[in-house]
Write a structure and sequence with these properties.
- The chain has a single domain (13-282), classed as NADP-dependent oxidoreductase domain (TIM Barrel, Alpha-Beta Barrel), CATH 3.20.20.100.
- Helix content is 40%, strand content 14%.
- The chain is built from eleven helices and ten strands.
- Helix 1 (27-38) packs across helix 9.
- The protein is globular, with a radius of gyration of 18 Å.
- The structure holds NADP nicotinamide-adenine-dinucleotide phosphate.
- Residues 18-20, 44, 111, 139-140, 161, 187-193, 198, 213, 215, 230-235, 238, 241-242 line the site of NADP nicotinamide-adenine-dinucleotide phosphate.
């Protein structure tokens, strides 16, 4: 595994395993164990995914059976919008730790750029200072939102987890965050298969050249940009496939060819759309 070093010195694996939409009973626990067996060390969950307990069970089993040591893992969770407030933020941090059965998280993120992000950030700074959170960051923050949070607090977000895939490449934002000392982490690298990503002819041509799959070309392209990349699968063979991307290089021409696929549009939703913000505001989590 290769690593990126965050501004505070934390080492973050370049490839990670995500458990969004892994909801069937037992699936997240099994997924985490299989992912660790395959070689993943970064596991990404969130309070809103409703599977922190199962993820915690998987981690516990992987450690107790000698598959991995706690200090080799990089566990991330996220605070949901309804907890992003002075009243709830501290409880949300402790709740994630408890459900995951961990005494520290390697990275904790504000999941969405809404509600009282300043109050939540100050609660996260406190938990960071006592070592319960080894690194803190945000997700889905635009350049202006992140800069505003960073400039008016003691600690700057170390990571911004955003959508990055061939159709929403975030070239401008990634360059800005990189220059500003914020590690970019990609979600939905395959756009969850939208826009026929898995049968894209341009990507297939590059895949054929290296005898790799389209998924592997996409993960290689993102990680070669210096961006930490999460992918999700429930299938052990795909877990291995998605990890096997650090042993070849795309040429500058191939990187540029993939750049030409950019539509500069989210494949999911626009975080600046007021209707999206209203929808997020109504979503509550049943803990
Ligand atoms: N911060 C945020 O707001 C946010 C939002 C979304 C996601 N995330 C994080 O990012 C992670 C990844 O994003 P995502 O789950 O939305 O989407 P994704 O990784 O782009 O796509 C997952 C889909 O790709 C399929 N897949 C995986 N590997 C494959 C392969 N090698 N060949 C063919 N198909 C493959 C999976 O199917 P199978 O499972 O059937 O293999 C699944 O349907 C999430 O799990 C989550 O941790 C964060």
């Amino acid at each position: 595994m290769e690593y990126k070093v965050l501004e505070n010195g934390s080492k973050m694996p370049l490839l990670g395993f995500g458990v969004f939409q892994v909801k069937e009973k037992g699936a997240a626990k099994k997924g985490v164990i299989n992912a660790i067996k395959a070689g993943y060390r970064l596991i990404d969950t969130a309070a809103s995914y409703g599977n922190e307990e199962e993820v915690g069970e998987g981690i516990e089993l992987a450690i107790s059976s000698g598959l991995v040591k706690r200090e080799e893992l990089f566990i991330t969770s996220k605070m949901w919008v309804s907890d992003v407030s002075r009243e709830h933020a501290e409880k949300a941090i402790q709740g994630s730790l408890k459900r995951l059965k961990l005494d520290y998280l390697d990275l904790y993120l504000i999941h969405q750029p809404y509600n009282d992000v300043f109050a939540a950030w100050r609660a996260m700074e406190k938990a960071y200072q006592v070592g319960q959170l080894k690194a803190i960051g945000v997700s889905n923050f635009s350049i202006d939102q992140l800069t505003n949070l960073a400039e008016f607090n003691k600690i700057k977000p170390m990571v911004n987890q955003i959508e990055v895939n061939p159709f929403e490449q975030q070239n401008l934002a990634a360059k800005y965050f990189d220059d500003y000392g914020v590690q970019v982490e990609a979600w939905a690298p395959f756009a969850e298969g939208r826009n026929n990503l898995f049968s894209n002819k341009t990507l297939q041509k590059i895949a054929d050249k290296y005898d790799k799959s389209i998924a592997q070309i996409v993960l290689r392209w993102i990680s070669q940009r210096g961006i930490v990349v999460l992918s999700k699968t429930t299938k052990p063979d795909r877990m291995e496939q998605n990890l096997n991307v650090l042993n070849f290089f795309l040429s500058e021409d191939e990187m540029n060819t993939i750049t030409s696929l950019d539509m500069q549009t989210s494949q999911f939703f626009d975080h600046k759309d007021p209707e999206v913000i209203k929808w997020m505001a109504t979503r509550r989590i049943d803990y």
